[in-house]
Amino acid sequence: MKAYVAECFGTFCLVFLGCASVTAGGFGNLLPLGGLGIAVSFGVAVIAMAYAVGPVSGAHLNPAVTAGVFLAGRMPLKDVVPYMVAQIAGAVIAAAALWGMAKGSDAVAPISRAANGWEGAGLSPMPTAFALEALGTFIFVTVILGVTAKKHRTPLSGMVIGLTLIAIHLCLIPVTGTSVNPARSVGPALFSGAREMNQLWLFIAAPFVGAGVAGIVAKTTLMERT
């Protein structure tokens, strides 16, 4: 139970701090340069949670990461669904908090500003968005599985994971707003409009595809000597 609570809390912090950089921090109004602030917010949140709750739950903070870890043979099946439920719950609570902060406040943008999508900016067709989200998740999960393998693990593992997430955000923010995390997408979408809900499927499916491939590759090739 402690691990599930840790995942809920860690995902809450990730989504709250990351999305607040858009809604309350105002970086969403400063694109493309503001993308650096958003990327750093998500990356630093992951680093903080990696060290804060990592010893308790592994700090997955992401259903796709949990899927990849399971497929790599690093966690039991019985924990997969509870981890994912806890992560989504944390993300929804964070989005609800940001939604509440925005009500009646001119200083806080609506949570929909932090939702993922591919049509809003008119920059990317759906196949491109799907491919990039899947590829970004594949890279992210592969890095996680690599730096947390027994023979590779160091005190800097959490830092490496966070910096990787920053790099992925810098690449994908102009295209999709960057998800690579179904929970991060579900939370804001539930408090946004029809467009965000209609596009949510991609930000669930693509990360799971990328993470699934990463988990299988890690188990069969990259991590075979760990």
- Euclidean distance between termini CA atoms: 29 Å
**How would you sum up the global shape?**
globular
CATH architecture: Up-down Bundle
Largest sheet: none
Kindly provide the name of the CATH class: Mainly Alpha
What is the averaged pLDDT score? 92
CATH superfamily: Glycerol uptake facilitator protein
Give the helix/strand class: mainly alpha
Would you count the extended β strands for me? 0
Work out the helix count: 9
Number of domains: 1
Write the CATH fold name. Glycerol uptake facilitator protein
Strand percentage lies at under 5%
Radius of gyration: 16 Å
Low-confidence stretches: none
Membrane topology: Multi-pass membrane protein
Protein name: Aquaporin Z
Subcellular location: Membrane
Transmembrane segments: 34-53, 80-102, 128-147, 159-180, 200-218
Task: Tell me what the structure shows.
By secondary structure, the protein is mainly alpha-helical. The protein has one domain: Glycerol uptake facilitator protein, CATH 1.20.1080. 71% of the residues lie in helices and 0% in strands. The chain is built from nine helices and no strands. The protein has helices spanning 2-23, 34-52, 54-57, 63-71, 77-102, 126-147, 157-176, 182-190, 194-222. The radius of gyration is 16 Å and the shape is globular. The mean pLDDT is 92.
What's a quick, concise take on this entry?
By secondary structure, this protein is mainly alpha-helical. The chain has helices at residues 2-23, 34-52, 54-57, 63-71, 77-102, 126-147, 157-176, 182-190, 194-222.
